Amino acid sequence: MEDAVPGTLQRRLTDDLVSLLVLDEPDRVTAPTAEALLATGVAADDLGRQALANLADHLGAEPLDRFEAQTDGRPVHCLAGDSFFVASAALLPASQGWLGPDPYGHGHLVAVPSRHLLMATPVGGPPDWVVTTNTLVQLAVARHDAEPGPISPDVYWVRADRWTRISQRTPSGLSVTPGPELEALLR
């Protein structure tokens, strides 16, 4: 698979979603080359850990709106703000709470429709997941198409730093395919 931005430090989360190490400078955001970053003598894994720590510090200092979008199923936890990195909170450990509670220990359904918005709901519990998932998919598509800085119209299952795409916009409409592992948890 090709790199999203050739020559940079990145991690492919799914076939359509990439985490890219960037520098947030006062007047712009840049993606330095992997060669330049590694020339500092710091290992790529250590750079990634430091980037996540910086992200958590940055988001902790930002004025962010936390709210719940009500659905006919369970609520969807939302995080919104002016920072270009709000959606990147999905990359932080679940224990930090950016995705909302995980009462069942099975991760979250996550949408990152734009850089300014993160939406998530826990996996497990009562059998209203179909309604909630469908609502989350519709919200993700609508916000992706309407917001500045679009990232993805899709919904992902995120658990223990593993990402699995469960929805996809196709020419014929929206497709939701949870897969056998997620379906078993949601019964």
What percentage of residues falls in helices of 4 or more residues?
25-40%
Q: What share of residues are in beta strands?
A: 25-35%
Mean pLDDT: 90
Number of helices: 4
The secondary-structure element order is: EEEEHHEEEEHEEEEH
Shape: globular
Would you report the number of β strands? 12
Summing up helix and strand content along with how strands pair, one would put the structural category as alpha+beta
- Major sheet summary line: 6 strands, antiparallel
Low-confidence stretches: none
In terms of quaternary structure, what is this? single chain
Rg: 17 Å
Ends distance:
34 Å
How would you characterize the overall build of this protein?
A hairpin with a 2-residue loop joins strand 1 and strand 2. The protein has helices at residues 34-38, 44-61, 129-146, 179-185; strands at residues 10-14, 17-20, 23-25, 28-30, 65-69, 76-80, 108-114, 117-122, 155-159, 162-165, 167-170, 173-176. The termini are far apart. The chain has 4 helices and 12 strands. The chain has 2 domains: 10-61, no CATH class; 65-185, no CATH class. With 187 residues, the protein is α+β, with helices and mostly antiparallel strands. The radius of gyration is 17 Å and the shape is globular. The model has no long low-confidence stretch (mean pLDDT 90).
